[in-house]
């Protein structure tokens, strides 16, 4: 896809991967709608893009609310060509409560579904569009310590697959981004937690591979959109891990249990 002169909406654009994505798409010539629950952070991202000569709007929006998604698609920039569903939360450790599940499902999964419900009909009538799902390697593998995160990221990957299969012949492109550890406020929050499940989860993230920058993830994502590639792996070793998991599921689960025991023992 030629990104120049497109309109790209980035959710969770106030910091971390979202801000890096907004800046990277703007550098490719897109007019960027930087959305975040924190209005000030969204505007800071947009202002930074404008200071570099790009075009950007900073808008406060809840990525899980349909009315807010509709507002993001009706700005002065015109129809949306690229929608990057990046907003996400780590959620509660362990099994969580009913309220915890509702919260993480709304942000990590239903926000993607609701955005597609708003955008896909327009893209079909226009002959094309592009949906980027920022999931996680946890969506291909799993996440020690946090059931909600592991489950919703698996679901986000599954929904992105379904979109690609269902609407690919109609001109709708889809990319699904699945990094391991990324140096963001989200990872910082997990590492700072005193909860033992969260501590084990944080250790598994930082030990699984190099903690890369948000800019690395953004560069890989932009390249995937340009080429129309579905699976985006900023950590290439995730593919080998995924293949290993699929080749012998029981062995993989046994290995993950051993690894979890070692993490809980502080090793």
Automatic annotation (TrEMBL):
CDD domains registered for this protein in UniProt: SDR_c
Class in the EC hierarchy, top level: oxidoreductase
Keyword Oxidoreductase attributed: yes
UniProt keywords, alphabetically: Oxidoreductase
GO molecular function: oxidoreductase activity
Pfam families: adh_short
EC number(s) per entry: 1.1.1.-
Keyword Oxidoreductase carried by entry: yes
Homology family: Belongs to the short-chain dehydrogenases/reductases (SDR) family.
Xref: PANTHER family: 5-KETO-D-GLUCONATE 5-REDUCTASE, ALCOHOL DEHYDROGENASE, PUTATIVE (AFU_ORTHOLOGUE AFUA_3G03445)-RELATED
Name this protein carries in UniProt: SDR family NAD(P)-dependent oxidoreductase
Lineage start: Bacteria, Bacillati, Actinomycetota, Actinomycetes, Mycobacteriales
